[in-house]
Amino acid sequence: MVEEKCERTYTENTFPKYDIEKPIPISDVKPVDKLRIKTRINEFDRILGGGIVAGSGVLIGGTPGIGKSTLLLQACQKFSEQGHLSLYITGEESAAQIKLRGERLCVMSENIFLVAENNLNVILEHIRKINPKLVIIDSIQAMFKPGLESSPGTVSQVRQCANELIYLSKKTGSSVFLVGHVTKQGMIAGPKVLEHLVDTVLYFEGEKFMSFRILRAVKNRFGPTNEIGIFEMCRDGLREVENPSEIFLSRTQRFNSGSAIISCIEGTRALLIEVQALVTKSNFGIPERKVSGIDYNRVAMIIAVLEKRVGLLLGGHDVFVNVVGGIRVDEPAVDLGIAIAIASSFNDKVIPSEMVMIGELGLGGEVRGVNQFDSRLREAERLGFKSVIIPKDNSKDASGAKSLKMIKVSSLVEAIDNIW
Fold first, then answer.
1. How far apart are CA 343 and CA 337, in angstroms?
2. Residues 267, 217: contact at Cβ < 8 Å?
C-alpha cells in the first residue's frame, strides 16, 4: 500500500506538465515519411549531410555582415518554391528592413512569413499556429523569456530560449535555424551548452572585403563534420562556387619560386590549393616566422626538418608561409608541399606549375602515406595537372589516375632531387 502511494506521488509531482512517452523497442519506432528536405542550394545541402532534417536544430555563426541572414533568406525562398511554409523571426531588424533585403535577393514568396519579435512566448505561439517547416531565429541573443529577470543575451536567457525552441522543434517537426553572434575570438557568444543543444553547428569563414565565403560544419549529428560549402558574395546574394579548387589556384599567372600546389581534404571533398613561401635574409638577430592559413607549430617543425635533414641554412633567414584564398589547412598531408615551397624560395628555383605535392613529413625527413588518396588524385586529374609527387606508401593506390605521372618518393631529399 505504501509502495503504490509513493509511486503515484512520484508520477504526479515529477511530471505535472508534460506528456510522458513510454519506452518502446527501437524496432517499433515509426520512421519519418520525409526525413530530409533539400534546400536546392547544393553547397548548403552538402554541409548539412544531404538536406535539412525535419525537427532538427541548427546553429549558424559568423562575423557581422558575412552573409548569415542572406543565406537563410535564400534558403527560405528555395523552401517556399517547394510549397513549404517558412517563418523568419527577426529580433534586430524590422519586417520592412527584411523585405527590403528580400527584394534585392528576389525573395518575395507568399509562403515566407516575417515577424519582428523578441518575446519567446509570442514566438512559440506563432510557431504553433503557422506550423512552418523552417523557422529562422535572427538572432538567438536578441530573444528573451519574460519569466527570467536577466536581460537578453545573458547566459540564462540564451540557454532557456534555445532550449525551448529546440524542444518545440522536436515536437512539431519544424527545423529551427538559430543565428548566433560571435566573440572577438570567432566563437559563438553565450554558453557552450548552446552548441550541445543543437544538432548542427555551422561557422561562416572569410573576410568582409573578400567575395568568397566558406561555410564549415563543425558539428553534425546527421552528416560529416568539417564539411565545407563555398560561396561567392554577389550583388544578388550568395552564389555557389561549382569548382572550388579553381578559386585557390592562380595557374593563369606565371609561377614564381616558392609557389607549390598541395592537396587537402575538407570533409568529403578534395581541394587543390596554392601555398606560397618567401625566404629572405634576416636584418635582425632573431629571424621572423610568419604563417597564414597553416598551424605555426607545424611550419616550425618543417623548417627544422629542412635544416637538419636537407641541409638548408634557414637560421639567418625570415620565413613567410601563406595559403592562397583565405582557407585554413590543418591536415598533415600538406607537409611535403610546404617544405618544397620553402626550399624553392630559398634556392630561388621555380616548381613546375603542372605538379602537385601530396605527403606527410616525418621528423626523420621521411615522406609518409596519406588517407583518401584516390580523391586527391581524381581532383588533380580533373583539373589537368600532369605530374604528382606521392609517398611510396601510397603506390598501390595510384593505379586509378592514368593520365598523371607518379613520382614516388620516400624522403624529402628524394622529392627535392626529382624536382630540380
1. 10
2. yes
Distance CA 274, CA 257 (A): 12
| pTM beyond 0.85 | no
Can you tell me the mean pLDDT for 116-132? 95
Do 206 and 214 form a contact (C-beta atoms < 8 A)? Answer: yes
Secondary structure (DSSP) of 305-336:
HIIIII----TTEEEEEEETTS--B--GGGHH
Identify which of 98, 133, 130, 138 has the alpha carbon closest to the alpha carbon of residue 114: 98
pLDDT digits (tens, 9 = 90+) for 35-67: 889 999 999 999 999 999 999 999 999 888 889
DSSP 77: H
What is the reported pLDDT for 242? 80
| Start-to-end CA span in the chain (Å) | 91
Is it true that the peptide bond before 139 is cis, omega within 30 degrees of 0?
yes
Report residue 252's pLDDT band, with 50, 70 and 90 as the boundaries: very low
Every domain of the chain and the residues it spans = 31-242, 247-419
Q: How many CB atoms lie within 10 A of CB 7?
A: 10
Strands (DSSP E) found in 227-301? 228-234, 237-240, 259-266, 269-281, 289-292
Fold type of domain 31-242: Rossmann fold (3.40.50)
CB atoms < 10 A from the CB of 186, how many?
12
Are the beta carbons of 118 and 143 closer than 8 angstroms? yes
CATH of 247-419, one of 3.40.50.2000, 3.30.70.260, 3.30.230.10, 1.10.3720.10: 3.30.230.10
Question: What is the chain's percent helix, strand, coil content, to nearest 5?
Answer: 35, 25, 40
Cα–Cα dist 259/232, whole Å: 25
DSSP code per residue over 165-198: HHHHHHHH--EEEEEE-B-TTSSBSS-THHHHHS
Q: Which stretches of 1-119 are DSSP H helices? A: 2-14, 42-48, 68-81, 95-104
